[in-house]
């Protein structure tokens, strides 16, 4: 890989796009074989992987809009990273299709006899029915694709010639986009993950999904920047000062995730109503208890104690290790949300190679899409008036 | 009763004025490089990069805040454990006496409270505040530090300090109106 220093464009893009695509295709083919082996397990593994990559893009969408709304200076050099993680949204629509085929296995509320025997499900039927589920999913993707294409195309227009009008448009789009984002992300979380246990509900669930998504998006952006740095790309643009700030956000959202996760837990624990506590009891039996403890300590307590120090955020090797660890934990978190509702894993957590191959399949194509977008233009918004200040940013 | 006129004047150090924040920053670098350790820079507003220019180590305030937070965390847990299992145990909603889940909000609150108190108290301590008088006030000129002027002061306790040498040094790096700080 080679970067032209003055225009920030790659003259040699390297072989990453091809490698990612090959990995993705191999993963998808292997995962299709898994579908023949055990279709129910496949759908759950697929939903976990789909949720992992979708929440990453949602976190990146939030970060991009937050950047415009706050008018932040330091993050201008990493704006192209967060914008490029919006590229896979249309591909994620295609990856949503297997979930539609697997609805019978994934969502108990699609069983007519289950609805017939449950007053609660009958009462929820105006919302939890397949037609409305498809319409809502279409709305979510339409909103996300619309917002991301608009923000990215404005950003590309800014590269050619910066005007105050483009900046104002990016900001106003982010203002109403933020409201649409909050509503769609919350309800997507309700629809795709919470409705797996259709008689259970938690109003904070959407925020929980958002918290994990934003945390892991920050981690993925940090990791990508660190990997580019190893190749000597953008190593003078994204300095330890920027990593320090990224590390602060990672640290902040570790706390946010823990705070939201505990808020959800404590209200249910305190009220002690059986139809609410059952969701946590499912995740506290057999080896699921181990997974729950891994999340508490591995996703919150230990990273909290490590990331709190200034030195961690500025020691790039350690920071890199932490963000990889937190990305793995995000997958464990989603696995912990999805799998206990499936009969095959009700009593004990179980691991299967198709859990990984689904991640590889979606992830490979996802990263191919990211890299094609990212390497297709200047790696930083070259005409942004705040770029010089961002390049010389110093963390106080 | 002592006669005030014979009280020897105590010497505090030397001070000189610089034109602008940039000049102050470069002056700080030169004072640092010359090997002085007990010196200070005075400006009406914070200047980016000054910590590094002065060669300051990382502030201790973070550690003090961390100690405060740890104390608050332990206090919060201990307080609730003692009141609800030792001093006045009551069964609430059929839950165990030691229901740590319910303790989290108060423990969290006390952690934040004592962390914040530690940060503020630590800041006062590290800044040696409150302090009603300081040697630099001996300079009439120095009052401008809160208005439009930038100063470097070198203290007498500095191992490298000698009065004429320090004055000459400040003059050589572009300091205006160098003067000796002394008074009763």
Strand order of the largest sheet of chain A: 1-2
Q: Shape of chain B, please?
A: elongated
Tell me the domain tally of chain B: 2
Structural class of chain A: mainly alpha
Concise synopsis of the structure shown:
The complex is a heterodimer of chains A (396) and B (184). Chain A is mostly helical.
What does the model show?
Chain A is mostly helical. Chain A has one domain. Chain A is built from 17 helices and two strands. In chain A, strand 1 (2-4) and strand 2 (9-12) form a beta hairpin. Chain A is globular. The model of chain A has no long low-confidence stretch (mean pLDDT 93). The model of chain B has no long low-confidence stretch (mean pLDDT 89). With 184 residues, chain B is an alpha+beta fold. Chain B has helices at residues 21-33, 50-54, 61-87, 100-126, 163-172, and strands at 10-18, 39-42, 150-155, 176-183. In chain B, 45% of the residues lie in helices and 15% in strands. Chain B has a four-stranded antiparallel β-sheet with strand order 2-3-1-4. Chain B is elongated, with a radius of gyration of 25 Å. In chain B, helix 3 (61-87) packs antiparallel against helix 4. Classes of the chains: A mainly alpha (396), B alpha+beta (184). At the A-B interface, helix 11 of A face helix 4 of B.
Topology (SSEs and partners):
The complex is a heterodimer of chains A (396) and B (184).
Chain A: E1 2-4, E2 9-12, H1 16-37, H2 39-70, H3 79-84, H4 89-101, H5 103-106, H6 112-116, H7 119-124, H8 130-160, H9 164-192, H10 205-230, H11 240-271, H12 274-282, H13 288-307, H14 310-314, H15 316-338, H16 353-375, H17 387-391
Helix pairs in contact in A: 1-2, 1-16, 2-4, 2-8, 2-9, 2-10, 2-15, 2-16, 4-8, 8-9, 9-10, 10-11, 10-15, 11-13, 13-15
Chain B: E1 10-18, H1 21-33, E2 39-42, H2 50-54, H3 61-87, H4 100-126, E3 150-155, H5 163-172, E4 176-183
Antiparallel strand pairs in B: 1-3, 1-4, 2-3
Helix pairs in contact in B: 3-4
């Amino acid at each position: 890989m080679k970067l032209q220093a003055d225009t920030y464009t790659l003259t040699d893009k390297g072989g990453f796009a091809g490698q990612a695509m090959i990995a993705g295709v191999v993963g998808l083919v292997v995962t299709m074989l898994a579908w023949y082996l055990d279709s129910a397990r496949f759908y759950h593994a697929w939903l976990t992987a789909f949720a992992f990559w979708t929440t990453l893009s949602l976190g990146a969408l939030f970060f991009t809009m937050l950047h415009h709304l706050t008018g932040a200076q330091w993050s201008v050099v990493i704006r192209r990273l967060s914008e490029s993680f919006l590229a896979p949204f249309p591909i994620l629509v295609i990856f949503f299709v297997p979930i539609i085929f697997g609805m019978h296995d994934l969502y108990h509320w699609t069983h007519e006899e289950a609805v017939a025997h449950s007053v609660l499900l009958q009462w929820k039927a105006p919302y939890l029915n397949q037609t409305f589920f498809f319409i809502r999913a279409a709305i979510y993707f339409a909103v996300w694709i619309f917002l991301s294409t608009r923000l990215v195309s404005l950003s590309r227009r800014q590269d050619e010639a910066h005007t105050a009008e483009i900046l104002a448009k990016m900001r106003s789009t982010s203002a109403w986009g933020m409201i649409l984002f909050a509503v769609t992300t919350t309800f997507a979380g309700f629809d795709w993950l919470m409705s797996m246990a259709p008689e259970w509900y938690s109003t904070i669930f959407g925020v929980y999904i958002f918290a994990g998504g934003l945390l892991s998006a920050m981690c993925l952006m940090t990791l990508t920047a660190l990997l580019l740095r190893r190749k000597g790309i953008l190593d003078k643009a994204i300095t330890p000062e920027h990593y320090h700030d990224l590390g602060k956000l990672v640290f902040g959202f570790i706390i946010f995730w823990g705070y939201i996760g505990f808020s959800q837990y404590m209200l249910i624990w305190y009220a002690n109503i059986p139809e609410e506590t059952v969701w946590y009891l499912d995740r506290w039996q057999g080896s699921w208890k181990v997974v729950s403890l891994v999340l508490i300590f591995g996703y919150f307590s230990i990273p909290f104690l490590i990331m709190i120090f200034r030195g961690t955020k500025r020691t790039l090797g350690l920071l890199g290790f932490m963000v990889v660890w937190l990305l793995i934990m995000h997958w464990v978190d989603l696995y912990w949300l999805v799998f206990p509702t499936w009969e095959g894993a009700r009593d004990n957590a179980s691991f299967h190679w198709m859990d990984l191959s689904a991640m590889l399949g979606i992830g490979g194509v996802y990263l191919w899409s990211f890299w094609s977008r990212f390497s297709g233009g200047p790696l930083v918004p070259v005409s942004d008036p705040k770029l010089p200040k961002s390049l010389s940013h110093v963390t106080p | 009763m002592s006669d005030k006129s014979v009280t020897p004047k105590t010497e505090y150090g030397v001070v000189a004025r610089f034109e602008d924040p940039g000049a102050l920053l470069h002056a700080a670098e030169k004072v640092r490089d010359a090997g002085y350790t007990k010196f200070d820079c005075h400006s009406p507003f914070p200047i980016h990069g000054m910590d590094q220019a002065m060669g300051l180590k990382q502030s201790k305030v973070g550690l003090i805040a961390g100690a405060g937070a740890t104390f608050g965390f332990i206090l919060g847990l201990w307080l609730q454990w003692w009141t609800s299992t030792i001093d006045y145990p009551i069964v609430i909603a059929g839950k165990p006496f030691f229901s740590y889940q319910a303790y989290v909000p108060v423990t969290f609150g006390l952690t934040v409270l004592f962390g914040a108190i530690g940060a503020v108290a630590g800041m006062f301590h590290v800044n040696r505040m409150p302090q009603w008088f300081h040697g630099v006030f001996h300079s009439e000129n120095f009052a401008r530090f809160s208005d439009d002027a930038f100063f470097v002061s070198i203290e007498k306790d500095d191992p490298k300090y000698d009065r004429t040498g320090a004055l000459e040094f400040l003059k050589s790096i572009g300091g205006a109106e160098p003067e000796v700080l002394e008074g009763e």
